[in-house]
Amino acid sequence: MKHHIDGSPLESDFEIKMETLSLSVEPGSKDVIVKNLYVSIDPYQLNRMKTYSSSQTAVSFSGSLTPGLAIDTYGVGRVLTSGNPNFEKDDLVVGLISWGEYSILKEGVILNKLDPMGFPLSHHVGVLGFSGLTAYGGFFNVCKPKKGEKVFVSAASGSVGNLVGQYAKLFGCYVVGCAGSRKKVDMLKDKLGFDDAFNYREETDLNSALKRYFPDGIDIYFDNVGAEMLEAAVSNMNTFGRVAVCGVISEYTDSGKRAAPHMLDVVYKRITIQGFLAADHMAVYADFITTTTDHLRTGKMQALEDVSIGLESVPSAFAGLFRGDNVGKKIVQVGEE
């Protein structure tokens, strides 16, 4: 990152720097040197790149980024050398690495040994990583679904939304998603099994659109976009409806764009609106992994990944998130396995 970014990110906002690194650990150091293999590309990082965002003080991993320094991110790598007794050369690891070819990780950085369990390493960045836990914890813990309930998912072809829709269908809910192109809409219905889906770009009145797709109202709204979509969803919620606020990507690039749901609807329909983070749901991590790996092995769930190759593709991969370029989890493979 060359400088702070307070609007939509562009490829030109980033640069690749070359540094000479020693691939050995000083005696007595507990550093771990990792060859990065797959790195996550996530919209929330834009809030870290701004001059200021309230999210920067929320949790440790959302802190402000300094221009000119490497950007830390969730990813998978392989240990090259280690002064930490918990890690050995050639261990596969998952945790906070960086947008780069190598990471030098100090003691205390979130890093765990990785058992691939027979799945592609990229899955552990997406469907079996924080994107998956966000979807699982958000849907089951925050939304508290009941079989047969009607679920609406925005940004449904994205890294979290597509998984929420799949969990909801497997649980026995009626699911409608929205996305930004006809191709994505068809994919949601034909590949992922959504009951219905629509292209929000083709709708001039989101409130009316949701009335068409949910004539009997919405019980659960999994919100990934905020702004007008949240307003329309709240207007169409049923009594005791639940809204899980996972992200507000439509507001990240426009500081003047804010959701203003009708609060009388919230009061008289007794609607619950709750924000959350993946870290809130570590208590269900084991259940999440068991359930999701079972669904993947039986073919009941699909891992939707959009993988670019090479460190040089990171800037376009990140900027593309805000243009709607990605389908599923955006990942960059920065090193050969």
TrEMBL record:
The keyword Oxidoreductase applies. SMART domains: PKS_ER (SM00829). The lineage of its organism: Eukaryota, Viridiplantae, Streptophyta, Embryophyta, Tracheophyta. Transmembrane segments: none annotated. One of its GO terms (molecular function) is oxidoreductase activity. This is Enoyl reductase (ER) domain-containing protein. Residues 17-332 form the Enoyl reductase (ER) domain. The keyword Oxidoreductase applies. Keywords: Oxidoreductase. Gene3D superfamilies: Medium-chain alcohol dehydrogenases, catalytic domain, NAD(P)-binding Rossmann-like Domain.
